[in-house]
Amino acid sequence: MIHRYELGGHHIVLDVYSGSVHLVDEVAYDVIGLYEDHSREEIIEAMLEKYAGNPEVTREELEECLDQIGQLKEAGKLFAPDTFAPIAGQLKQRTAGVVKALCLHVAHTCNLNCAYCFASQGKYHGDRAVMSFEVDKQALDFLIENSGTRRNLEVDFFGGEPLMNFDVVKQLVAYARSREKEANKNFRFTLTTNGMLIDDDVIDFANRECSNVVLSLDGRKEIHDRYRVDYAGKGSWDQIVPKFQKLVKALVGRDYFFSGFF
Questions:
Q1: Rounded CA separation 50/46 (Å)
Q2: CA angle, residues 148, 152, 157, in degrees to nearest 5
Q3: Cβ neighbours around 103 below 10 Å, total
Q4: pLDDT tens-digit profile of 145-175?
Q5: Across the chain, which distance is largest between two alpha carbons, in Å?
Q6: What are the CB-based long-range contacts (under 8 Å, 24+) for 79-87?
């Protein structure tokens, strides 16, 4: 299966099953579109007719283009077969009803007032609130009980701004660690934060307990401060960037990612 599309003046062909991406010219783009459903001669005649006014589109050039497409197909980089289909049912049956990860919205509130916030400034068009430890604990128990034979389980602390409920986050991680051995599970935690509340305690926690940290930053200062503002309308760049830098420098064997609109 292929997916062809044009973007920014470019002709792009994605071979779905191999994952190969090809940047091609307009003629090759059209030829690939006809390749599976037309004979070689039909494709050549169709292209010669369409590009009759273009002296560079000759039979010889089209023959070479078709040869190159054939080579890509033979190499498994174009029109690759769906090798997943024969085992899809089996894999689906094996994983049916199995939960492997949770995204816990531990804080339906936020300390920033970003103009574009998909979460309605963290409250998701509802009331501002934070999740209690008891509710978090039930969610974790649900994950353990419904994870089947999976050992590695993922939990992402999200919001709003999850550090506004940091004490509960720490309690839940401690509870998860207390259950790992008897449940034969290994928890991997992710923290997604806007950085406003990062301090030494948070850095120590991230370094000790988190597999990775996701940091929200919208590019350079003038862009970030235009959109990611506090409730007084002041940009947050100068507050968070030094904290991000300190956290990243302190992380040992942990991943971090940036999330934002650039």
A1: 6
A2: 110
A3: 12
A4: 999 999 999 999 999 999 999 999 999 999 9
A5: 74
A6: 79/1, 79/2, 79/15, 79/35, 79/36, 80/15, 80/16, 80/17, 80/18, 80/20, 81/17, 82/1, 82/17, 83/17, 84/17
* Residue 131, SS3 per DSSP: coil
How far apart CA 173 and CA 104 sit, in angstroms, is: 12
Q: Tens of pLDDT along 79-102?
A: 999 988 888 888 777 767 889 999
| Chain centroid offset of residue 112 CA | 23
- In the chain, the N- to C-terminal Cα span, in Å, equals 32
In the block, tokens 């720490």 appear at: 170
Rounded Cα distance between 104 and 169, Å, is: 10
* Cis peptide upstream of residue 122 (ω within 30 degrees of 0): no
State which amino acid sits at residue 250. A
Give per-residue pLDDT as tens, 98-112.
Answer: 899 999 999 999 999
Cβ neighbours of residue 84 closer than 8 Å, sequence gap 6 or more? 17
Burial class from Cβ neighbours inside 10 Å (0-12, 13-18, 19+) for residue 78 reads: buried
CB 213 within 8 A of CB 193: yes
What DSSP letter does each residue of 145-174 carry, written as one string? Answer: HT-TT--EEEEEEEES-GGGGHHHHHHHHH
Q: Is the dihedral of CA 228, 232, 235, 236 positive or negative?
A: negative
Sheet holding 152-159, edge to edge: 129-130, 101-108, 152-159, 186-193, 210-216, 255-259
Q: How many Cα atoms within 13 Å fall on the side-chain side of residue 108?
A: 10
